[in-house]
Every structure is written in C-alpha cells, then in structure tokens.
Amino acid sequence: MPKLGNLKPREVEQILLKNGFTMNVSKSSHKQYFNPITKAHTTIPFHSKDIANGTLRSIIRQSQLSIDLFRK
Question: E strand or H helix at 13, and its extent?
Fold first, then answer.
C-alpha cells in the first residue's frame, strides 16, 4: 500500500470540504461529515496529534475518495 504522510485533522477536513463534504454533526472532539452526492459519511477525530495511519485509511475508505488526495 502507498505511504501516507502525517496529516493534521484540519488538513483532512480541508480535503473533505474541497471534495463536496459538509459538516453534519460536531460532538466534543469529533466531527462528522456528509457528502450529499455520494451519500458517504465519515468522522474525523480532532485531537492535538496527527491522525494515526489506520484512522486515516478508515476515513479515506468511508469518504470514497482517492488515496492520492491524502498524500503529501
């Protein structure tokens, strides 16, 4: 599998917003996003650290976006 860079939650949020996602729900340190065109849902944890690789891959899979958008 291709390597992913370490991404901050805000960077992942910007990628989702540029690709048609809107914020659906915001509870404490997690935000949920929804794409009305693809009907895809995904959740981003907004903690002080970078997003872990496994979590980032899960976000990519749930969002149905290309992994290339998330490479640095």
Answer: helix 9-18
- Burial class for 36, CB neighbours closer than 10 Å (0-12, 13-18, 19+): exposed
User: Strand 22-27 vs strand 30-35: parallel, antiparallel, or unpaired?
Assistant: antiparallel
Helix, coil or strand: residue 72: coil
Taking the model in full, what pTM does it have? 0.90
Pick from 9, 15, 6: nearest CA to 66: 15
CATH code of domain 9-70: 3.30.920.30
Quick one: average pLDDT of 33-59?
94
